[in-house]
Design brief:
Structural class: alpha+beta
Shape: elongated
Helix content: 10-25%
Strand order of the largest sheet: 1-2-3
Largest sheet: 3 strands, antiparallel
């Protein structure tokens, strides 16, 4: 999108403060070009809707198991969560995973746009 925008306009970069009031002069034009382009990236097809949000993509759900990272499911923007986890039992009848039935506290620092507080998912 930036290459296409550069072919039509002279695009100049300048430092901007993310928390400041100034916006990049070419920002709206770049978003409009992004809405029009479709290509295949490392994570699969990349396309954006009219709001500029990425659509029709899939992510693998990974879990750290005794043998390393294992794919246990996937999430996509159409069907949402699809779990394909296989639970292995030990010979003694208990869980094979020593982390089974443990409670973990996960914390994150609010850092938009990566982690943001959402009051409702609707």
């Amino acid at each position: 999108a930036l290459n296409e925008l550069s072919a039509v306009q002279q695009v100049r970069q300048r430092p901007l403060d993310c928390s400041g009031q100034n916006a990049w002069v070419h920002g709206n034009s770049l978003v409009n070009y992004m809405k029009m382009v479709e290509f295949t990236g490392l994570s699969g097809p990349i396309k954006f809707d009219t709001s500029g949000l990425r659509t029709q993509f899939e992510m693998d759900l990974m879990e750290l198991q005794m043998g390393g990272l294992t794919k246990v499911g996937s999430w996509n923007s159409l069907d949402h969560l699809n779990l394909a986890r296989v639970v292995k039992k030990s010979e003694e009848g208990g869980e094979a995973d020593p982390m089974a039935n443990k409670t973990f506290v996960i914390t994150a620092i609010l850092n938009p746009p990566y982690t943001m507080l959402v009051e409702s998912h609707e």
